[in-house]
Amino acid sequence: MFRTTKGALRQAVAVAVLATAALTACQPEDLPAADASRSASPGASADASPEASQSAAPDGRRSLVDAAEAGGLRKHTGDGAITDVPVDPGEMREGMQLVVSNFAAPDGGDPILFEGVDNVPEDTNKRREHLFRGMLEHIEWDPELGQPEAQPVADPGPLGGSVECLLASLSENGQVICGWADEGTAAVALFPDSTLDEAGKLFVAMRGDLER
Fold first, then answer.
1. How far, in whole angstroms, is CA 5 from its chain's centroid?
2. What's this model's pTM, rounded to 2 decimal places?
3. What are the φ and ψ backbone dihedral angles of 101, each rounded to 5 degrees?
4. Residue 3 phi, psi (nearest 5)
């Protein structure tokens, strides 16, 4: 089983269905049934309201920002911009927002993939687990190599909540997936060539620009 500091993850299959530049969120077994009439696209809220995409979440909870820069890293636009949703975000309900971006890597290598949702109605730790599984599917991690174990990031930054990273590599550096979960948001990012420590610190810095 896939393990985190919050407990064992339940195994599931995350399938991203690409149709032009939009994805209809699929229905993972461990999440409530999705409303098939709703679709998710990068940087858009579930109710497709432009105003809602940058507004504060209900009850004063935080919301995600489709930032042009995060942690000092520039968001890719034009030819480098991501146009699909590579990782199934789970059920997207009215008022929720999905943000998907590629950010320039510090070393000029492969971009850092970010995907997150806000206004999450269920336990955000479970939504993060769902995103972790989806990201492992995205990088085509071979389960026969074992299930990577998520490690807590000691300092989650001023936004609090829980931040964890896992190393999807057989060496001490390689593909690192980091994720956060707080009262109403959950997000993950893929760092193609990094270490747990480096990726964790950069992820926390990026979070400061991606969550309000």
1. 18
2. 0.75
3. -150, 155
4. -110, 145
The secondary structure of 126-183 as a DSSP string is HHHHHHHHHHHHHTT--GGG-PPPPEE-S---TT-SEEEEEEESSSSSEEEEEEEE-S
> What spatial distance separates the first Cα and last Cα of the chain, rounded to whole Å?
33
Please provide the size of the chain in residues. 212
- Are 75 and 103 a contacting pair, CB within 8 Å? yes
The H or E element that residue 97 is part of is: strand 97-103
Under DSSP, the state recorded for 211 is: B
- Report pLDDT digits (tens) over 94-148: 999 999 999 999 988 999 999 999 999 999 999 999 999 999 999 999 988 888 9
Rounded distance between C-alpha atoms, residue 61 and residue 184, angstroms: 6
Q: Say how far apart CA 27 and CA 20 lie, in whole Å.
A: 20
Q: Is the separation of the CB atoms in 89 and 25 below 8 Å?
A: yes
